[in-house]
Amino acid sequence: MTLPLTELTAELASLSEFLALLECEISRADNGASVAVLVLSLRRSDRINALMLPSHAQEARQLFSRRMQPILRDKDKFVFVSEDECWFILPRLASEALAILAVHRLLNELAKPFKVASQTIFFSPSIGIACAPMHGQSAVSLLRAADIAQKNAWRDNHQFVLSRALEEHGALPENLLTVLEEVLDANRLEMRYQPKVALRERKIVSVEALVRWPFDHALKVETTMLIDTAERYGLIELLTMRVLNQVLAQYVAWKNDGLDILVWVNLSARLLSHEQLPQVLARALAIWGVPASSIGLEITESALIHDIEHTTSLLFELKAMGFHLSIDDFGTGYSSLAYLRRFPIDELKIDRMFIHGMTESIQDEQIVQSIIGLAHNFGLPVVAEGVEEERTLKALEQLGCDQIQGYLFARPMPGDQLIAWCRDFHQAQGST
Fold first, then answer.
1. In sequence order, what DSSP letters do the residues of 372-390 get, joined into one string?
2. Of 237, 299, 314, 427, whose Cβ has the fewest other Cβ atoms within 10 Å?
3. Do the beta carbons of residue 154 and residue 41 sit within 8 Å?
4. pTM of the model
5. Residue at a domain's end among 123, 142, 169
6. Are the C-beta atoms of 133 and 145 separated by less than 8 Å?
7. Helices 277-288 & 236-256, crossing angle to 10 degrees?
């Protein structure tokens, strides 16, 4: 008989249980004993398995949990916060070195591929480490520090990174929520726009709107932290409306100056569950006199599969209104072909993690090639994001990628710079 996961391993049943336990352990931490938090991003090789069944990810998770059992102490706990990310608590450590030792043991275990049904799953993990009280003195601040370290590890192609001290990395204050509310109330968020380039024609076909924290604000907040905080505290709808109104105003200004271009806006998973989302979007369009056909909505793959029936109905309603629809970060979630076939999608965007590694990793190149072939079989164009090098561009051209987005051609820029940039780009490429 198969025992429940909670009886087999140190896996906690819920995120709330994890946070409560972490707060408790932090309260016990002092200079003689600390508690470490690990944020682990698995980056599994089977994300785009075309034949993946709903049970596939669960089997992989159960195997992961069993693998963790012998390398963790009884007091160590972890929780999955998504299918591809989990958080660990390692309490009562005598030094940071013991946390690093635990990470090495974890990485050694993840270096061994998993066998699930007929699939062999490989991992390319990145881990962020933070210890209390050195790197944070609350559950939120400690997780923030570990999350930043994990993102730095992924960015710099390291397997793990230890967080810096509070005074070194400028840890975010406990009143971030209050500061965010003030910024939203004052409508101070800034927008940047990054072009998408059609490879064959070397022509700008659209731009993505990217929100940024106010440049001149005394506090510096990364975009990921901005979005995470807004979602966690129920401010994502207000944030999105602030963004959308700025985008629509900018679109009107561009059109008055002779530039009529499709603009993509990101929608969060939480917004997809909002029953009045189509009506809210329609009101904003009406105020600015912008047709829905001029706006694209980017939705992350993982956000699509929480409530398939509701999501499918919502996407068809948005499509009927005239919006363009894109699956963002494709390859990082677990949607199956059956789901993909049901959604009225206009394009797929390949996550940058695969693009960055495709010229050095055969596995990443095969993933990119598979996504391009999959999309083309469905009659969908493919956008590769995060293109920074000429060799990556050439590799994508050889694989038949349709569009690219990245620093190689353009960094995100203020709206008032886009018209001149497009003109100069098209002149340099010999396109019109």
1. HHHHHHTT--EEEE---SH
2. 427
3. yes
4. 0.65
5. 169
6. no
7. 30
DSSP code for 417: G
The reported pLDDT for the residue numbered 241 is: 92
Q: What secondary structure letter does DSSP report for 415?
A: G
Q: Which residues contact 402 (CB under 8 A, 6 or more apart)?
A: 198, 199, 200, 347, 381, 382, 383
Which tokens belong to 121? Answer: 């799953």
8 A C-beta contact, residue 378 and residue 346: no
| Residues 111 and 210 placed together within one structural domain of the fold | no
Residue 312 carries which side chain, given as an amino acid letter? T
- Contact predicate 160/103, CB 8 Å: yes
Produce one character per residue of 361-386: b if its CB has 16 or more CB atoms within 10 Å, e if not.
eeebbebbbbbbebbeeeebbbbbbb
Question: What distance in Å separates the CA atoms of residue 238 and residue 116, rounded to the nearest whole number?
Answer: 42
Rg for the chain, CA atoms, rounded: 22
Strand 203-212 and strand 190-198: the pairing is: antiparallel
Number of structural domains (the chain) is 2
Same domain, 163 and 180: no
Average pLDDT, integer, range 224-243: 82
Query: For residue 344, how many other CB atoms are within 10 A of its CB?
Result: 13
pLDDT category at 5 given cuts 50, 70, 90 is: very low
- The answer to whether residues 119 and 201 belong to one domain is no
Tens of pLDDT, residues 196-215: 999 999 999 999 999 999 99
Pairwise CA distance, residues 171 & 229, whole Å: 14
**Which residue, among 11, 188, 45, has the nearest Cα to 120 in the 3D structure?**
45
Distance, in Å, from the CA atom of 127 to the CA atom of 39, rounded to the nearest integer, reads: 6
CA distances from 161 to 147, 167, 170 (A): 10, 17, 17
351 in the same domain as 290: yes
For residues 155 and 180, membership in a common domain is answered with no
Containing domain of residue 251, as a range?
176-429
- 371 in the same domain as 316: yes
The C-alpha atoms of residue 56 and residue 9 are separated, in whole angstroms, by 19
Q: pLDDT per residue over 269-286, tens digit each?
A: 778 878 889 999 999 999
